[in-house]
């Protein structure tokens, strides 16, 4: 009987973790302005230019979800004027990734024209959520 209770508890915990992870994966979250100056310097070192809205994707060569995220980001950037896509390999830029609190791939940062990170997502972002977040920052392509 004890084994059955342990099994039920483990399955319940695994189910709860799976539900939590699935709800959080790929969600765009607002970013607080803390560490803004350090983040701007790290972004500038990666090639983010002031005056442009930029989608920064941190990826790795062996990351399958990174390819899916790239397709979503390319589609979204193609639909909006003034949005640039920058893919950053974490292998080559590990120090910058750590400065920007990137701990998994893919991680997507939405950077406004002032060079501030306004949203971030760990995992493949939802296309509609990304378009909604970028709409106030960039213009729609006709």
Can you offer a commentary on this structure?
This protein is of the alpha+beta class. Helices cover 45% and strands 22% of the residues. The protein has a 5-stranded mixed β-sheet with strand order 1-6-5-2-4, with helices on both faces. It has a two-stranded antiparallel sheet with strand order 3-7. A hairpin with a 5-residue loop joins strand 5 (107-111) and strand 6 (117-122). The termini are far apart. The mean pLDDT is 85.
How do the helices and strands follow one another from N- to C-terminus? Answer: HEHEHEEHEEHE
Give me the count of strands.
7
The largest β sheet comes out as: 5 strands, mixed
What CATH architecture label applies?
A: 3-Layer(aba) Sandwich
CATH homology group: Glutaredoxin
CATH top level assignment = Alpha Beta
Number of domains in the coordinates?
1
Strand order of the largest sheet: 1-6-5-2-4
Gyration radius, in Å:
18 Å
Shape: elongated
CATH topology: Glutaredoxin
What structural category do the secondary elements indicate? Answer: alpha+beta
Residue fraction in strands = 15-25%
Low-pLDDT stretches: none
How helix-rich are the residues, as a percent range?
Answer: 40-55%
Overall pLDDT metric: 85
InterPro entries: Thioredoxin-like_sf (IPR036249), Thioredoxin_domain (IPR013766)
Domain Thioredoxin: 32-139
Pfam families: Thioredoxin
Organism: Micromonospora terminaliae
């Amino acid at each position: 009987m004890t084994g059955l209770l342990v099994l039920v508890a483990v399955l319940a915990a695994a189910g709860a973790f799976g539900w939590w992870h699935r709800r959080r994966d790929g969600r765009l979250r607002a970013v607080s302005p803390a560490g803004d100056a350090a983040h701007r310097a790290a972004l500038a070192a990666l090639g983010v230019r002031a005056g442009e809205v930029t989608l920064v994707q941190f990826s790795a060569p062996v990351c399958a979800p990174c390819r899916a995220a790239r397709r979503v980001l390319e589609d979204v950037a193609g639909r909006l004027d003034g949005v640039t896509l920058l893919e950053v390999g974490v292998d080559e830029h590990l120090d910058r990734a750590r400065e920007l609190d990137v701990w998994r791939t893919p991680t997507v940062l939405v950077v406004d024209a002032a060079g501030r990170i306004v949203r971030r997502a760990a995992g493949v972002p939802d296309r509609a959520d990304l378009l909604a977040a970028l709409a106030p920052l960039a213009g729609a392509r006709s």
